[in-house]
Design a protein that fits this description.
five-stranded mixed β-sheet, alpha+beta, 2 helices, globular
């Protein structure tokens, strides 16, 4: 039996991005919208789906959606913060004056 590709969708009613595999909810990334900013607060992958890279797939899609919507990102969720650390092409989503708050300043102080 071949599995389909994971699907990521925004569920604004629940304030979270969800990732599904073959129609089953595999995980989610909670967020709060505040004007032009989106705060990611918690990311969770169901233990039955761990080890497949779904957390990274989920966060990448959520950050891409934030970029497409013109939102800046506040990564309160440690998983989202680590993803941005490992993929610096997403660092521009975090406002420069907020990067030190999340230890994403690369050793630089906020201006």
């Amino acid at each position: 039996m071949q599995q389909s590709e994971p699907q990521v969708a925004d569920n604004p009613e629940a304030s979270r991005f969800e990732i599904t595999v073959d129609g089953a909810l595999a995980g989610f990334a909670d967020y709060r919208l505040n004007g032009p900013r989106i705060s990611f607060t918690h990311t969770e992958i169901d233990p039955a789906f761990e080890g497949r890279g779904l957390g990274s797939t989920l966060v990448r899609a959520a950050l891409d959606a934030a970029r497409d919507a013109g939102l800046s990102v506040l990564p309160f969720c440690p998983f989202v913060k680590r993803y941005i650390e490992r993929h610096p092409d997403y660092l521009d989503l975090v406002p420069a004056d907020q990067r030190a708050r999340f230890s994403l300043d690369g050793g630089k102080t906020a201006e």
